Amino acid sequence: MSKLKTIFLLFLAGFILVGCSDPRAEDKKILVDELMDLEDLTNDQAECATNAFSDNMSDNSWKGLMVEVSGSDEEYDAWEESLTEEDEEKLVKEFNSGVADALECDGIPPGTFR
User: Which of 37, 80, 101, 110 has the CB geometry, 3.0–4.6 Å to 52, for a possible disulfide?
Assistant: First the structure.
């Protein structure tokens, strides 16, 4: 009976870990690298800023940011054309909120994200 309980607990823990993984993890790695290269941030600063952006952006806004960072011009143009005026306003608000939160990260100087 003890072995069955152990197997069940291991299965449950594995299920929880898989279910709780971050779907943006790969994108976040790409953005961290870009921020370190383009904005001359440390790894910790770039991770903090990336999490700030992720926390403030909807899936569609995040997709646009990632297409801008690592996609082709054609992909970005197609994404941009799919936006409504309401989407654009929402995107600007979400991005600005992400910038505000990112500037709270330790050591990131104002004017970093333009």
Answer: 101
Each residue's pLDDT tens digit, 21-56: 789 999 999 999 999 999 989 999 999 999 999 999
* CA–CA gap between residue 93 and residue 101 (Å, rounded): 12
Taking a C-beta distance cutoff of 8 angstroms, is the pair 55, 102 a contact?
no
**Please, which residues have CB within 8 angstroms of residue 22's CB and are 6 or more apart in sequence?**
28
Please state the pTM of the whole predicted model. Answer: 0.77
3-state helix, strand, coil in the chain (%, to 5): 75, 0, 25
Contact between 32 and 47 under an 8 Å Cβ cutoff? The reply is yes
- Residues 76/83, Cβ–Cβ less than 8 Å: no
